[in-house]
Each structure stands twice: as structure tokens, then as C-alpha cells.
């Protein structure tokens, strides 16, 4: 089923798997780490997301962790068959959870998501293994 643009929707995600590996550490400088995540999606978009994060841990334990990454969303439900890629950029706060910006990568859409553009935010509470994507979808410029 085609979209009526602009479309605002909320999609819940749960991390079905998370594998993280440090790739550079220095005394008194924090560490750089790579995380491979598989998300189960429900709500506005049903499907699966395959996500790769690069994380920058601070030198001070317990401080906010910056991240950037790309996630390919694949959906085959409710007439929304296809895929697209989102760029993630934000931070994880041990006190407040995850917050950040999401942007649809131009030209990444397939199937019903072909020509998709848009942006949104990611929200997740500290201590939980999931959260919410709030997206506003439109046609790519």
C-alpha cells in the first residue's frame, strides 16, 4: 500500500541481539567500540533492522556515550514490503537513556520505500533494551 506523504509514525524496536567489540582503547581516553545489533520492529513499521554502531566512550566512567551508525530496515508486513537505510546520530546517557537524530539515506529505499526521504528521533529509557523511532516520512528530494 503506498504512503500518503508526509506520514508521521511511531515504530517500537527491541534489540534482539547486541554484540559489541572495542577496537581502540587508551588509558585516560575512553574507548572506541563497534556494536552489531539486530532490532525487532513493531507498530508503524513491522520488520527487522540490522544496525551497526560506532560508539565513543568517554574517559570518565558513567558519562554519556556518543554514537553514530546505519540501520537497514526490512519490512514485509501490512503491504509495506521493502527496505530503507537510516543514519543514527546521538548519545546514550546512563541516567536518561538514548536520544538522537534519524535521517533516511537518500536512494536507499526499495519496494514500497523506493524514493523515501525523511527524518526523526530515537528515544529509549536507560536500562531498557528497546525504545521508539518517531519518524516523519516524505518523498526524497
Automatic annotation (TrEMBL):
SUPFAM superfamilies noted in UniProt? SO1590-like (SSF159238)
Which Pfam families does this entry report, sorted A to Z? DUF3224
Q: Which Gene3D superfamilies match?
A: SO1590-like
Q: Which InterPro entries match?
A: DUF3224 (IPR021607), SO1590-like_sf (IPR023159)
| Descriptive protein name | DUF3224 domain-containing protein
Which source organism?
Answer: Janthinobacterium fluminis
**What is the taxonomic lineage of the source species?**
Bacteria, Pseudomonadati, Pseudomonadota, Betaproteobacteria, Burkholderiales
